[in-house]
Design brief:
Elements: E1 2-8, E2 13-17, H1 22-28, E3 46-51, E4 54-56, H2 66-70, E5 73-75, E6 79-81, E7 85-88, E8 98-107, E9 112-119, E10 130-134, E11 142-146, E12 156-161, H3 167-175, E13 181-184, E14 201-206, H4 210-221, E15 229-235, H5 244-253, E16 257-263, H6 277-284, E17 291-296, H7 298-310, E18 318-322
Parallel strand pairs: 1-7, 14-15, 14-17, 15-16, 17-18
Antiparallel strand pairs: 1-2, 3-5, 3-7, 4-6, 8-9, 8-13, 9-12, 10-11
This protein binds flavin-adenine dinucleotide (FAD) and FE2/S2 (inorganic) cluster.
């Protein structure tokens, strides 16, 4: 059974089957509904049900606050209709597209590449946000990558991990060359620095989750704040660790920044032996007076959120960006 869905304020109409989500149907019907991961992990498809009935499938905890739920907000990539509906949802326009040229490709480790891009016109974003990048040669496929750079830098810098068999990362590691061109959508995400009140910060980065965390650290270091920042950076495999010298140098110059590097791989010599990221974070707690920023795989984020809630941290002080594999 299909239902007519009207998106407000654009007035665009969709026909959506009961076994389809709003985002999936919009993309199938060529409507550029604003979204990120497509599978309930990032919150970028948040909308509001203005009328009608739908079923909300499970999504990452904390994406909607109790107040947002009470106000009929919904995660549209996990919302299936059960009647005709009117939904407030952002729809991107063709003006929201940038062409970027690959300036350089620089290996940061055996499995992580730094990609530097120059956009054809200024690319507005906030530190910690990400760009959706069209996969070259694969029409309609996009991947999300967080900027490691700050908005006032001339270039966009990304840290991208090689995923075996991955469409975008294989292109990047095997075929990309300086001068290649990429299409970017507008910057997205709410993983940005909370500047309303100065608090000590806990930053937890797994793998290339370090990219937006580095941007947040640099933005924070520009503020006249003195509260400590505790960065825990880890990965399961030693090959996925990078920027270690760079981070150690940064902590030497900025005494308010404290660094713990964790790797559960026994091959990680020189790091004081294997240790896991979240147990190390727990050992250094409690973190109940901190503003927390988490970035990495969905599994790490969910476990870290559980851990921090058990340390008495309120939801509102936990911010996260989940590097969920793309749904298309
Ligand atoms: C908001 C956001 C920001 C992101 N930022 C970054 C970033 O800064 N740097 C970065 O490296 N990645 C980032 N990612 C992940 C990135 O978008 C891609 O999912 C990833 O690079 C894989 O894309 P691909 O085309 O190479 O692989 P795909 O073709 O999408 O995947 C190939 C296969 O590998 C599986 N797969 C994909 N990713 C993983 C994984 N992590 N672990 C295990 N299996 C996987 C897929 O399910 C599929 O079966 C981010 C994701 C999100 C949602
Ligand atoms: S696009 Fe819906 S939660 Fe990410």
């Amino acid at each position: 059974m299909q239902h007519e869905i009207v998106l407000e304020p654009s007035g665009q109409r969709l026909w959506v089957r009961e076994d389809q989500t709003i985002v999936a149907a919009a993309l199938e019907q060529g409507v550029a509904i604003h979204h990120g991961c497509g599978n309930g992990s990032c919150g970028d498809c948040k909308g509001q049900i203005l009328s009608g009935e739908g079923i909300q499938l499970p999504f990452m905890p904390l994406l909607l606050t109790p107040e947002e739920r009470a106000a009929n907000q919904a995660i549209l990539c996990k919302l299936q209709p059960r009647s005709a509906m009117r939904i407030a949802a952002q729809v991107d326009t063709s003006a929201d597209a940038w062409t970027a040229t690959v300036l350089s490709l620089h290996p940061l480790s055996a499995t992580v590449m730094e990609l530097c891009l120059q956009c054809d016109r200024p690319y507005p974003f906030r530190a910690g946000q990400y760009a959706r990048i069209a996969v070259p040669g694969a029409a309609g496929q996009w991947r999300s990558y967080s900027m490691a750079s700050l908005p006032d830098e001339a270039l966009l810098r990304f840290h991208i991990r090689a995923v075996p068999g991955g469409v975008f990362s294989s292109w990047l590691f095997e075929r990309a060359r300086p001068g290649d061109q990429l299409q970017l959508g507008p910057a997205q995400g709410t993983f940005t620095l909370q500047q309303d009140v100065e608090r000590p910060m806990l930053l937890v980065a797994a793998g290339t989750g370090l990219a937006p965390i580095e941007a947040l650290i640099h933005e924070r270091l520009r503020l006249p704040w003195t509260a400590p920042m505790h960065l825990f950076f880890g990965s399961r495999r030693a090959a996925d660790l990078y920027h270690l010298d760079y981070l150690q140098e940064l902590t030497r110059n900025r005494p308010e920044l404290h660094l713990e590097i964790c790797c559960s791989d026994p091959a990680a010599t020189g790091l004081g032996g294997p240790r896991r990221l979240l147990p190390t974070v727990a050992d250094h707690g409690p973190w109940s007076d901190h503003e927390v920023y988490l970035c990495g795989s969905p599994g790490m984020i969910e476990a870290a959120v559980d851990l921090l809630l058990s340390h008495g941290l309120p939801h509102a002080r936990i911010h996260f960006d989940s590097f969920t594999p793309s749904a298309g």
